[in-house]
Amino acid sequence: MPAVMTSARTAAGGADVSVADSPLATFESLTQAAVIAVMGIAIVVSNLLIIAAFLNFKGLSNEVINYYLLSLAVADLLCGLFVVPLSVYPAITGRWMFGDLMCRLAGYVEVTLWSVSVYTFMWISVDRYLAVRKPLRYETVQTRTRSQCWMVFTWISAAMLCCPPLLGYKKEANFDKETFICMLDWGTTYAYTATLGILVLGPSVISIVYNYFYIFSMKRKLNSGAPIHDKEYATALAENLANPSHWMSFVLVSAFWLSWTPYVGVKLYEYFTDQEIKIPMLHFGVVWLGILNSFWKIVILISLSPQFRLALRILCLTACCRTKGRLQAELIGMDNDD
């Protein structure tokens, strides 16, 4: 989750802010807490299913993109385990009771996991670009070992880039009493915030836009019947572009950015107008809509990835009857990983 400037918030170590005693306020608080709890359960369960399907089924290791999807699932699972649950009780009481250190730690985990997701989507777009740009040499250019190294580098670099506030560069952490999220407020550290934005958002957005523009341009060129003189290249390109992972990955990336667009729009409006929007539930809605993107991944994978549907089916068969699961894997020529 992006850590950006907040306003009219309560410091984690400051005065307690309790919800109003009116029945309406109590009902609203309980409803918000229930929504957060349900979202947390959905995020954890969905990403556990994704991880289990990837680890259970060897056939998914044949495509490099699946390692990136596994990294995304791990990041979203950690969000569901360590970020979302901390907001349930504060949603009922209206105050943060876990202390300033935990508030800073929660804010650090949020922005680190968000950075990992942004970087991973960039690598996914690069992987799809290479598959289209060099279809004949893709398997030698994008190896499983190389993709695993990129994921390790992504996690380490994101953790290091986001750690200065945790180590005391900016000690204050703000509890947002409207969204019930503890955020690192970097509004007064413009140099560091701008540097982080350039290092994380800059290359990621540029790469994603260029790579998918190239992919869909080539697809349009191929569908239009434009002549390609190298027949071997044309055949490999046509087979590659027929892979549903291109469209699936594009929908994943789009869903992520669309989920966070309302939040970014609200924050930019408040920053440039220097006034906070007073619409009830607006801040709660835009923040938790962004966090909800951690759940949409399984919906998109089930809808657009035949390979993942098969892996999920085999996982269910394996859980119910290991013999049936093994038989299903053997029927398609790929053994499940026991």
Automatic annotation (TrEMBL):
The record gives the membrane topology as: Multi-pass membrane protein
**A Pfam family that the UniProt record links to this protein:** 7tm_1
Residue intervals of the G-protein coupled receptors family 1 profile domain: 46-301
Q: Name one GO biological process term.
A: cellular response to hormone stimulus
Q: Which GO terms describe its molecular function?
A: G protein-coupled receptor activity; peptide binding
Q: Which residues form a coiled coil?
A: none
Q: Which UniProt keywords apply?
A: Cell membrane, Membrane, Receptor, Transmembrane, Transmembrane helix
Q: Where in the cell is it found?
A: Cell membrane
Question: Which chain regions cross the lipid bilayer?
Answer: 33-55, 67-92, 112-130, 150-169, 189-213, 247-266, 286-304
Q: What is its main location?
A: membrane
Q: Do you know which Gene3D superfamilies this protein is assigned to? A: Rhodopsin 7-helix transmembrane proteins (1.20.1070.10)
PROSITE patterns named among the record's database cross-references: G_PROTEIN_RECEP_F1_2 (PS50262)
**Would you identify the family this protein belongs to, as annotated?**
Belongs to the G-protein coupled receptor 1 family.
Q: What is this protein called?
A: G-protein coupled receptors family 1 profile domain-containing protein
